[in-house]
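Changelog note: in this version the structure field was regenerated for every chain. One regenerated record is shown below for reference.
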Amino acid sequence: MMRLYSVILVCLLAVACSPVSKRALTKRFNSLETRLHDHTGFMLYDPEQKRELYSYQSDKYFTPASNTKIFTFYTSLMVLGDSVPGLRYLETNDSLIFSGTGDPSLLYENIYDPGKTFSFLSTTNKRLFMADGNFYTDALGSGWAWDDLPFTYSSERSPLPIYGNYFTLQQSANKIKTTPSYFSFDVTVRDSTDKSSLAREIGSNKMDLYPGRTGLSNQWKTPFKTSSALTAKLLSDTLKKEVTVINRTLPKSAKTLYSIPADSLFKEMMQESDNFIAEQLLLTCAGVLSDSLKPEIAIRYMKKNYLADLPDEPVWIDGSGLSRYNLFTPRSIVSLWEKIYLRVPRARLFPLLAIGGKTGTVKRAYKNEPPYLYGKTGTLSNNHCLSGYLVTKKGRTLIFSFMSNNHPAPASTIRAEMEKILKDLYLHY
């Protein structure tokens, strides 16, 4: 009898530890779509065995949101190297002529290393001339939502960003302070209302502040309308020396000044899903490839040289995923993660990503010791995606892509359902 119990126990343990059956997974995904009225795609892949473990509508196209940053990340890995170009410049006897490379780090508070660019410009005794002839795209991306314009996750693109292309306004009692201070001249204080608010005119930097009830403290971070003239003015104020704009493009013989380690930007982009860094990195890559800051240049180059073997051709529009026109399939995202995994050592790669229960956009979810999820989220209204690496309880490293589109349910509901499924895969594979 004891032998029979032992056999039954072993069988039960084997069932408990066996992989989730494909039939059971399909049933769960069907139920998910029925209950939440969403469109779901999923793929699970073993990179060591180079074998698909499970697929559910992984050949269908989805709006990826910030999963687009995985493409920007891979592009940057292939194009930029270890350091980010901060400026291109020429020197004459009395002049320093420079142009922006798209590098987003200059005086950007989210990057804690100010880099070499500011030091280079502030210590020279030459006259400063900023050449602005290399920027060949719109400040706002195709397919971006107008509703996003007041928020810093939709800051404008520019050849030489400064302060992240936004300013901060602090209201304390009856005092108002802007950083940079230059923007204080653009703020008009209106009649007080019950609720405080700040509104910027579209197409200008004129702003109306409604202070709200007296004594309240508030803070706004607001993107500013970029221009070469404004960049030169902000640089002049910050450097305490005049910067003059000239409309020209620097020759190929111009030198390059490198600013900060690329991983400093990659970590902020992949963990915190920084749209501004993603957009600027794609511009920087284009500049390295062609001396012209235009995202389509980098996208075409990557699709032709490094992404032609993806299972499905990506519909790739911008660097951040703000555009509603981006479309990728789960199996192509998995294939891209495999390319990254083969190129970047695990010890470097995993700390750059959002880590379940630890860092970034999954800090409060997917908790476990040790962590089992390393990846990238992507969220727009009615769309939520998550993809990356799943380190199972047995120690296997798997690649997955989980994409949910067109769901009327709150994103938190979708995330909870994703976590249940991914946790089961962690336990049983």
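Spot check on this record: The longest strand covers residues 83-91. The longest helix spans residues 411-428.
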